[in-house]
Amino acid sequence: MKLGQRSSANLMAWPGQEGAKYAKLVLWLIALTTIWRIWAAAMVGFGIGEAYYLASARSLHLSYFDQPPLFLWILWGINAITPGEAPVLLRLPFILMFSLSTWVIFQIGARVQSARAGWLAALLFNISLLFQVSIGGWAQPEAPLMLFWLLTVWFLLDLFGEEPNAPLVSWGLVGLMLGLTFLSKYHAVFLLYGAGLYALIVPSARKWIVHPGPYIAIAIAALIASPVLIWNWQNDFISFNFQGGRAFGDEISLVRLVRMIVGQLIYITPWIALPALTAAIIAVIKGPGSFWPSSKGRGVAFFFVMLAHGPIILFTAVAAWSETQFHFHWQAPGYMMLFLLLAMWMDASWARFKTALTVFLVAATIVNFAAMSILVTHTANGWLRQIVPGFEEGIDPTRDALPWTALGEFLRDEDALKEGKFIAGVHWTECGHVDNAAAGQVPFLCISSDPRNIAFNVDPTTLQDQTGYIATSVWPDEAIMGRFTPFFENFEQVGEVEIQRAGRTELAPVRIYRGEKLIIDREFGPSTTGKFQVPLLPLTRISRIMGQVDELAAPLEVDAYVNGERIGAANIVDGAFDMTTGMVATLPLRTVTLELKSPDGKPLFAKSVKVYLGYHQ
Which helix (H) or strand (E) holds 412? Predict the structure, then answer.
């Protein structure tokens, strides 16, 4: 690859006379799509993911359970300085980041081929269904991921496409952007993989394998991403284990694989995704020595494929043996690279197929934005129910974006949002909406077997004896009563509310329960078996055990076991013992069996036992 003069300093520069026309078109594109996304952001409430992310961002941490921290830091900061938790204000930084990404992808296209190729890449980037709203407009990790991914690519082109005067400086800039990409999402690993694979395959790039520059870049990236590493080290690498665990399964399922293939094509937009994949296949066949389609340097298209194929192939293949649910956006950074490749192909074919390509782009733009505008307006008021036969009885995923405003009103009327009380949900998919209804006015717990980020925000042991309100729309009443009655001195349902859209009830009623005097530490009376059932809230553990035994019949020592695993021991002195345990907290809500035994393994006959719980930190 030889692209000419090193141009890192020209990222924000205005192109020359030939490219000015396309630069103006890109600015118009940025302006119009930004306005459209701000409108969409004002129309639609938070869905499950965004509501959960806002709940996660109420506390500032070095990193978080299922995502690196950058976008949550941004969300925390914006929430701290803007009033009312309005979705449009909280989404605005992410909209602006995507707008900046549009300019960067234009500059990359103009750099490697032509200003028209850059304009086409920017247009494809904005009309893909997934990128239009979800990536381009919502408060999620993808907006900073795309921005810093593209900036990393820009600086990699300095090294793989040109002859930099100061290669260590160039690699330093790569490391800076790569580190910020890692802070955005773990997908950054595919940049390392793709660039490394390119360096191994392409002879002109192999010099970098023995050059200190790439290793300096990796060191800089690791330093910038160190909050992620430190937090995971402090928390037993729970985030890495969670994300890595998604790649494992126990059986092959062609149904899941087909669902992933079809789902990603729909999300990306079939009439964009399929030509982009075709362009990638051609680029691989042409090889790294080709100027195809008409790039300024050898192997540019091959370079983009090296960066693109990792997330596309891996996350598609994983669906064959692991339940990836509906995460069709995981391949998005790879397709973003293919947008550049497809734009280059279209630009090279422009003279022969100008009319057909123009019609295609205009039609795709109109259809895609019309479709997403229909989706946005329906999400706001449900109007499609009036004109689409059978839609009323079907599943409407837009219901997930309805704010639980009625729950907030109920909690205020109950005086539940006052000091000395707390609010809780029962699963991460609901916890975000429940938390958003409370708007951070009181502590919030996600009392669930899968609380994720939210479990790290509040130490539940500090809420002992407080009154809590628990809300759910999906768990049956008998399950809620059975699970939560042991945690309170008194627990009962106190009401329910309906979540409505345009005056129409859309979801199952949200039932609200009140628990008086949360029980954290536990006292048990006489036991001949030495066994005790101890309910544990998320991220809590048995930290201390005290007890009284029959002084005459007592052994010299008592050992404590939880679910068969030894957690501590203490001497018995004058019929009493007091031990600090080495028990490790785990994330889910659970009930454990505590056993007290003598050193020979026999049950300890206890007169009384008191169990103290501690938070995982």
Answer: helix 405-413
Which of 503, 518, 533 is the last residue before a domain boundary? 518
The one-letter amino acid at 457: N
pLDDT digits (tens, 9 = 90+) for 402-429: 999 999 999 999 999 999 999 999 999 9
Which of 119, 113, 154, 169 lies closest to 7, judged by CA?
Answer: 154
- pTM of the predicted model, to two decimals? 0.95
**CA-to-CA distance for 92 and 449, rounded, in angstroms?**
33
- What is the C-alpha to C-alpha distance for residues 94 and 112, in angstroms, rounded to an integer? 27
- Report how many domains make up the chain: 3
Minimal CA–CA distance to 306: which of 194, 187, 189, 150?
194
Q: Judge if 303 and 452 occupy the same domain.
A: no
- String of DSSP letters for 366-399: HHHHHHHHHHHHHHHH-GGGGTSTTTTTS--GGG
What residue numbers bound the domain in which 510 lies?
A: 402-518
Instruction: Please identify which residue in the block is written with the tokens 């837009």.
Output: 398
CA atoms within 13 A on the CB side of 259: 14
Q: Say how far apart CA 457 and CA 454 lie, in whole Å.
A: 5
Structure token pair of residue 522? 């536990």
